[in-house]
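Researcher: Here's a chain I'd like modeled. Treat it as a single chain, no partners, no ligands.
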Amino acid sequence: MNHECPSYYTEDSPEASLAATQSILTYIRSLPAASSTHAALGTPQPLVQPILTPRFAISCTAPLLEGLGALAASDPSLLIQTHISENPSEVAYTRQLFPSAPS
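Model: Modeled as a single isolated chain. Structure tokens:
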């Protein structure tokens, strides 16, 4: 998060946030797999899986969201979760912040 959030959550820059995100993804993916296998896939599954979580649009600038989108596009196995705008004023503010976004 690098916008509209408490200072103790704010990251220095989109680049710093993306570098930290890539670092934790690499670390999590280096952890050992579970001892059991996934029945449908027949392969060992990780005990922990990373999930990309760009909290919600208001808390991220366009450059950070674009970088996270590129990261997700480069890794189809990466799960993604986020909060949506939950009330009319948040929806309006999000549209104001991202006027070129279709939805």
